[in-house]
Specification:
Length: 405
């Protein structure tokens, strides 16, 4: 077991015979996380449409919140006065905050394009700009990022130092270094520029985090560094080597990917990172993508997709996703899945859920979110068990064959 800084530890229990995947235990000040594990996203200190009790009951082990959003509302000082993120939101398990780096992308290069972190179609190249416009709400420079608030248009400046200060106040168990998340369509030249800037910011984050005078909300916080480099093998490997040599307690794999070679990009990174430290794949949660991430050595994952898609009526099943508002489900009196143990499936039918969505009832969001979060959390739990049982390849192939049809 590796004892990391700030009193967390990570123990690898078993590894895949063929591949980088592994099963482990990540110990945090607020409990253990059995890895690999899906981390449920509670962007604004709430998992949308669900109570903390419901999230816990679905088997979730940890929750991730967004630094940028909590900074804007209610403000990090209010979260600090409440006793930190966990106490503020009524969650007693492990907590994580991202750095605000994703907003560099979502409010900048991606603001008017809505491509997302994974490129699936050919699109026009995008790079950073030096001024605000109707199509860009973030400006990047060497010192940090200036944001225009999506709430009221006010301007705010995040530096690596400020991101760490805010995260210290929010008080999650695991926090992330400030990075520049790039568009999947950025040129190689820009990907390299952003990667090198991320490395410089990482060093500044470490220096701030390790200052003895830093006023931590929770003294046992742990800092992860973030690997960038886009879709380019040499850049990904370079970034992993540089970040991997820094004094981080774990690592995030950030930035953007091509859908077709995301697994390769994850493998490039994890072949370089220190084996004994935990790895978190940031913002990836599609069921099919998770198998490749686990097989290629990632321990944690987070994504808003399960709850976001649930609120849009998109439901996960072993045979793929479907939209509950399709006409044929109005008179389908079977559960979403016969063998699902979630509250939705044990008590309600597809016809009822379809009715709730068609009637714009709030309960629709809750029931659909219960099912989708349960599906993803349990899926990753089954991946973990399959590694322990030496049966990962068969489980992966059977699931993907059914899910992709």
């Amino acid at each position: 077991m590796l004892e990391l800084m700030n009193s967390i530890s990570f123990k690898i229990e078993k590894k895949l015979k063929n591949g980088l995947g592994r099963v482990g235990i990540l110990k945090t000040p607020h409990g253990d996380v059995e890895t690999p594990a899906f981390v449920v996203v509670g962007t604004k200190a709430t998992v949308k449409a669900l109570t903390p009790e419901q999230v816990r009951g679905l088997g979730a082990q940890a929750v991730l919140a967004n630094t940028y959003h909590l900074y804007l509302e209610p403000g990090e000082e209010i979260v600090k006065k409440a006793g930190g993120l966990g106490k503020f939101m009524g969650w007693d398990g492990p907590t994580i905050t991202d750095s605000g780096g994703f907003q560099v992308f979502s409010l900048g290069a991606d603001f008017d394009k809505k491509i997302g972190k994974i490129r699936r179609d050919e699109t026009v190249g995008i790079e950073a700009n030096s001024k605000f416009s109707e199509k860009r709400m973030a400006i990047i420079d060497e010192n940090g990022v200036t944001f225009r608030s999506h709430r009221d248009g006010s301007t705010h400046h995040f530096t690596p130092e400020r991101s760490i200060e805010i995260q210290h106040a929010i008080g999650a168990d695991i926090i992330f270094a400030f990075d520049e998340c790039t568009s999947p369509d950025a040129s190689r030249e820009y990907q390299k520029e952003a990667m090198l800037r991320t490395h410089r910011w990482a060093a500044r984050c470490l220096a701030t985090h390790q200052q003895p005078t830093t006023n931590h909300q929770q003294p046992k916080q742990t800092l992860f560094g973030v690997v960038q480099g886009g879709r380019f093998e040499d850049l990904r490997k370079e970034s992993a080597k540089v970040i991997g040599k820094m004094d981080f307690d774990g690592f995030g794999i950030g930035g953007s990917f091509d859908k077709e070679d995301m697994n390769s990009a994850v493998r490039w990174v994890n072949e370089q990172l220190p084996q004994e430290k935990p790895r978190h794949l940031l913002g990836i949660g599609d069921p099919m993508d998770l198998f490749g991430a686990v097989e290629n050595g990632c321990d944690l994952f987070d994504c808003v997709a399960p709850t976001r898609e649930a609120r849009n009526g998109s439901i996960y099943t072993k045979r793929g996703r479907f939209n509950i508002e399709n006409t044929k489900y109005r008179t389908d009196f079977a559960p979403i899945e016969d063998d699902c143990e979630c509250y939705m499936c044990k008590n309600f039918t597809k016809a009822y859920l379809s009715h709730l969505f068609r009637s714009n009832e709030i309960l629709a969001n809750t029931l659909a979110s219960i099912h989708n979060v349960h599906f993803i959390v349990k899926l990753v739990e089954k991946m973990r068990k399959s590694i322990l049982d030496g049966d990962f390849s068969r489980f992966r192939d059977d699931f993907l064959k059914s899910y992709g049809r």
